[in-house]
Design brief:
about 300 residues; alpha+beta; Ribosomal Protein S5, domain 2; Alpha-Beta Plaits; 2 domains; six-stranded mixed β-sheet; 14 strands
Amino acid sequence: MSLARAFEHATSSPVVLRPGCKVNVNLAIKGVHQDGYHELDSLFVPMSSPCDTLTITRNSNPGLKIVCSIPELAGTGNILHATHAAWSGRVGYTPGLVLYLEKNIPMGGGLGGGSSDAAALLQWLNQTAGKHGLGREELAGLARELGADVPFFLVNHPCRARGRGDRLEPVDIDLAAYHGLIICPQVHVATAWAYKAWDERWASGHREKKSSRILTMYSRADRNPSSRRHLVLYNDFESVVFPAHPSLYRLKLAVIAMGACGCVMSGSGASLVAFFQREQDRERVCTYLRARSVSVFT
């Protein structure tokens, strides 16, 4: 089947994708490369909620048209345009698509929503192309070019992420004993600002002891007591984000005081991820936060 026929068949009815998000349950900044990128060491965990919704339909004209629930995100700066163009350039065919994007993953929250959307579209394009698509290594390379977090969403499995966050090592962890909660306060933290603030703090020689909590977990394959390991929750960005946004630090302390085993900022913020041993504690925190207009996702 030709590429044109493959996409015509795939879009004979609307295609709906629901890319989720990710949280960093720990994040260490190891240094800065000469090209300006930071050396990271982090544990990424995929989460199904919150998720965006991508609805794809056919367009008679080659290229990608985006219609978004947040209109200003539909412009050419959206990573989905770059994804469509880059993949089309590699395979030598430009499918005509209209993409309706419903944004539910908070922006500026450290949850990787844009990268998740890009990975979902990239994977769908390549799967639809079948034998005409890119091989695994070429697809992963293209994902790295699009953004540091995009390769992780192609894997969509807990991973240790190093380098820019694109050197991935799948890890065997099971957090099923805990009830997770993503907390998205109405605070926006620009990633570029967070890195700059960290650079300035590091250059000044300021060092802080990490604020951490420890969870006990098992591997997915082995539930025996001997397989227990400890997962330390920490984030180097907290040392610069919390002083600039003290309400986030107070929120973290409140969540822990109300029963969370651990709570940590995800990425450069401002979202927090918390883990609870008892579901009723999580629900109590959800009720408390919703009453204060703070978005929560379970």
